[in-house]
Amino acid sequence: MSQTTSSSGMGSAIGVYVGILAIAIIQIAVALTMGPSLGRMLVLAAIQAYLAVMFFMHLRDEKPSLRLALIPGTLFVLVMMNMIWADSFRLLVMKPFAK
Amino acid sequence: MSADLTMSPGGHGAGVMEERPFAIPSSKLVMWLFIISDACTFGAMLFAYGYIRNAAADWPLVFERASILNSLLMTFILVTSSLTVLLAVKAAKADDRQGAFRWTMITAGGGILFTILHVREWMSLIGEGARLFQNPWGSPMFGAAFFSITGLHMAHVVGGVVALIVIGLGYRAGRYAERHVEIWALYWHFVDLVWMFVVPLVYLLNMKR
Q: pLDDT at residue B93 above 90?
C-alpha cells in the first residue's frame, strides 16, 4: 500500500511538474502574442504557485488548521500592500517637487 | 508512567512533552513560518518595484528574446530541481541514505547551474551599461529594481545550495534525520515559488516590444 501511495504521489508530482513548466511556456506565449499584461501574468503565476504549494510542498496533505494558519494571513499582508498604488500615481501625474 | 517519559520525543525522560503543533515537528513549523515571512519580504520587494515602475515616465523595456529564452531555461532548471528534491525526500522517507544524498546533490547542482546562468545574464547587462542607479535605456531606477530583486533571489538560491549540501552530507553520515531533508526541501520549493513570480513580473513585463 505504501508503494502504491508512493508511486501515485510521484505520479502527481510529475504531473504538477509538467503543468508548472507548461504554464511557464504559456506565460511567454501570451506575452509574445497578446502582450504581457499584469493581470494575465499574475493569474498564471498564481496558478503555478498554488500547484507548487499544494503538491510540491505537500500543504494539501497537512492538517486544515495549518493551511488556515499560514495562507489567509500571508494573503492578507500581500493584499494590504496594494495601498501604495495611489502614491505612485500621485508621483506620475502630479508635481512632487517644488521648482 | 516511566514508559510515558521515555517515549517522549528525544527520549530524555524530561517530562510530558506538549503535542506537536498542527501535527508536524516544531522544526517544520519554523520553516513554514520563515517561508511566509520571506514571502512577505519578496512581496514587498515586488510591490516596491511596481511602485517605482508605475511612477516612472520612461521605464525601459530591456529584455530581448534571448533574455526571455534564458529565463525560460532557468525556470526549467529550477522547477526540475524542485522535482529532484522531492525524489530526495522520498528516498529519505524510505531510509535510502545514498539515494537521498544523490538526489540532494543533483538538486544542489541545479541550483549552481541556475546561479551561473543568472550571473552570466547580470554580466551581459552590466556590460551593456546597466548599473544600480543608471543605465543607457531609461529610468535610472531600473537597475536598482532588477538587481535587488534578482540579487536577493540569487542569494536565497546560493544559501539553499549550501544548506542542501550540508544536509545531504549530514544525512548520509547519519547526523541528520529524514525530517531535515524534508524541511530544506520545503525551503527549496519556496525559492522556486518566488522565481515563478519574478519571471513574469520582472522579465516578461519588461520585454522589448
A: yes
